[in-house]
Amino acid sequence: MAKALIHDGTKSWWNGKVTTLCGLVFESGNSERLIFTGVSCPVCKAIKKAK
Fold first, then answer.
1. For residue 29, which of 12, 4, 43 has the smallest C-alpha distance?
2. What DSSP character marks residue 37?
3. Domain spans of the chain?
4. How far apart are CA 16 and CA 12, in angstroms?
5. CB under 8 Å, gap of 24 or more: what pairs does 15-19 form?
6. Which of 14, 7, 9, 8 is closest to 28 using CA atoms?
7. Are 15 and 28 in contact (CB under 8 A)?
8. Is residue 9 within 8 Å of 19, Cβ to Cβ?
9. Which end of the chain is more exposed for a tag (fewer CB within 10 A), N or C?
10. What predicted TM-score, i.e. pTM, was given to this entire model?
């Protein structure tokens, strides 16, 4: 079984969509908020590091 990637992103207060740093968009209700976990998506990590 493949390991799930953990992304870094923001949630819209308007419609509940989550947009990750790497460009993925999750519709409202199709994502889970994880606190105190590390980002495992290599693209999200690179973008966050470049900021």
1. 12
2. -
3. 9-50
4. 5
5. none
6. 14
7. yes
8. yes
9. N
10. 0.76
Six-digit token pair at 50?
């470049």
Write out pLDDT tens, residues 1-49: 667 889 999 999 999 999 999 999 999 988 888 877 889 999 999 999 9
Return the pLDDT at 2. Answer: 67
> Chain centroid to CA 47: how far?
12
What pLDDT, on the 0 to 100 scale, is given for residue 19? 95
DSSP string computed for 5-36? P---EEE-TTT--EEETTS-EE-TTS----SS
The vertex-1 CA angle with 48 and 34, nearest 5°, equals 40
CA dihedral 37, 11, 50, 39 (to 10 degrees): 20
